Amino acid sequence: MDQQRLDIFDLKKIKINKSKAELEQTGKQRQKAVTSAELSTFVPVHRDPVADIEQTEAKMIPELLPLRHQRMLASRFAFFRGTAELMERDLKQQYQSMMPVVICGDAHVNNFGFYASPERKLLFGLNDFDEARIGNWESDVKRLLVSIELAGEENGFKKDDLYDLLQLTTKTYRHAIKSANKLPLSAVFYYSFEIHDMIENIHKLDDDAPEQMEAVLQNLIKKSQNSNSEEIIRKMGTINNRGQLVFRDNPPRAKHLSDAEYQAVANGYEKYRENVRQDIKVYLANFHITDIIRYSVGVGSFGTRCFLLLLTGIDGSHLILQVKEAMPLRYNLLQLQVQQAIANGLQAGRRIVTAQRVLQYSSDPFLASTRFGQRSYYVRQFRDMKESIKIEKLDFSSYRLYCQTCAFCLAMAHAQSPTSPMLRGYLRHQKVLDQGLADWALHYVDQVDQDYQAFKKHVQK
Q: Which PANTHER family did the record assign (predicted)?
């Protein structure tokens, strides 16, 4: 297997001086070098999952680890979400297509969702980029497929139905790559998947689209209108003994900072303001910091340093920004020397911001990176019209359409890389991959189960 590494975030790797036709031909050549049969072959892995997890957690906040473990032990899917480093490492041991594109790196079914465009339209797409890198398209597809199986089994769906869905997901991805390759570059660049487009596309995928999915989407449209900073502070805020509006403590998840920590985050905010767009810099001049709290989120990110900033405007309105620690790629945390990992981490915020702007159709205008305390962070608006579909509440027909939509969006995100015609060349006439990658995913689900059981045994000692 070709062991060349593509995980360093160097955008020069996707700036290849070739025409679309030449890139497609390169993809066809890669198909001969690494066939679909090889790409679908599961290569057994040998490592200690507990040791790898502990190495990752050594960079996290110790008092949050018990809650992190509690979240990871909730189910195999929750464990899978919290251990991206294991699959990153394992993918390096598999056959790889070695065609560089910007990938999400953690494209499981719960890392897709809705977010607001600057025009306040509700868009659907990838929404987590902590593991984004230059990598192989199949890394994202394989992680998506494994998550579909794990989440689907939790929902109680039939194994045969899920196996068909795994094949359909890869087929949808292949066809979307084909469609994107036919579009002009400008059409791909400006492409967006607005919620009404999503509804229309779902009806194209299935003329008899389930009423449940339609109802879910219509409800999200209504719900998103109330997801803003004012609503959040009403839920999370309180008046302190000095009559000031502040965040409510809920330790250890939500906790106020020491004076020194508060000042460090405030200094990081000032550096962040230097990195935002000029129009956002002017807008933020209307606000001052009212409060800062450490507030942990997610599963994989739970335990990292994450803060919420409450900003108050000159008119008394509020804006809540999330300052989230940008960790080095999980695989690099396991492989690099300590000093190399630290140096890599200082660039992580910029990597995540860049990848999000490439892979998302229209990114948060407040998105930018910063540094403080020898760590890298990225900043974004907190929960602004951000919504997600609760996949555990979907029937199978709705779940199938949701997974197809994720596959479509993933392909369009990959199509943003100038090297994406190589994917078209590789995937051309490769129906065999639909079943092949489904089989690979089932093998990896068994690996996840082994890792989960080992971790559960370790934690419950």
A: DUF2252 DOMAIN-CONTAINING PROTEIN
The C-alpha atoms of residue 283 and residue 64 are separated, in whole angstroms, by 35
> What strands lie across the sheet with 306-313, from one edge to the other?
254-256, 287-295, 306-313, 318-325, 375-381, 368-372
What is the rounded CA–CA span in Å between residue 89 and residue 21? Answer: 33
Report whether 146 contacts 80 (CB < 8 A): yes
Report phi then psi at 267, rounded to 5: -65, -40
- Which H/E stretch holds residue 66? helix 65-72
d(CA 355, CA 416): 11
Q: Report cis status (omega within 30 of 0) of the bond before 252.
A: yes
Are both 417 and 347 inside the same structural domain? no
The predicted-structure confidence for 315-344, as pLDDT tens digits, reads as follows 999 999 999 998 877 655 555 555 565 565
If asked whether residues 153 and 182 sit together in one domain, one would say yes
386: in domain:
no
Instruction: Give strand ranges (E) for 283-408.
Output: 287-295, 306-313, 318-325, 368-372, 375-381
122 lies in the same domain as 197: yes
pLDDT digits 0-9 by tens, 123-155: 888 989 999 999 999 999 999 999 999 999 999
Q: Which residues on adjacent β-strands are paired with residue 323?
A: 307, 379
